[in-house]
What we know:
With 178 residues, the chain is of the alpha+beta class. The protein has helices at 14-25, 82-93, 137-151, 163-168, and strands at residues 3-10, 30-39, 45-52, 55-63, 70-79, 97-108, 111-118, 122-130, 158-159.
Amino acid sequence: MPSNIEIKAILSNRDATETIAARLSGSAPETFHQEDYFFPCDGARLKLRVLAPDRGELIRYERADIAGPRRSRYSIARTTDPEVLLDILTATLGRAGVVRKMRTLYLVGQTRIHLDQVEGLGEFMELEVVLQPEQSEQEGKSIAAALLAEFGIDEQQIVAEAYVDLLSRGATLASAGI
């Protein structure tokens, strides 16, 4: 099962973060709207990410809710008919929540840098260090730590919970400890 090292932080200065991400990436970012529909799932998270009427991804992932770099193991199945799949999953499992966001994606080596404007929550940065089969979890965490330092992210900005959990309990940035 593929895995990555993930960490999420509240953005305090998006413009400065974008400047650093552009410098590190050396190429233009990709910006797109995402709707993530979550479904009840024992021992993991299950979401349908709708990217366009004819493009979606069903994603199952396992990740601890801890503040700091953490390993995420995932499986992805792509679909050209996300609306029908959404209807089937909703009728079968029910929904656990919806996250709508505008995502700006920068690629830096093996790391995906997401700058997210999350509806109802605010601005976040998420790092995903995609691990190669031969790489250790510690190596991925070291890459993430170096990037956090490059962006000047401090411990108070780190978020342990998934966006869907913050939204489901009506969290604000202040109540999330930020």
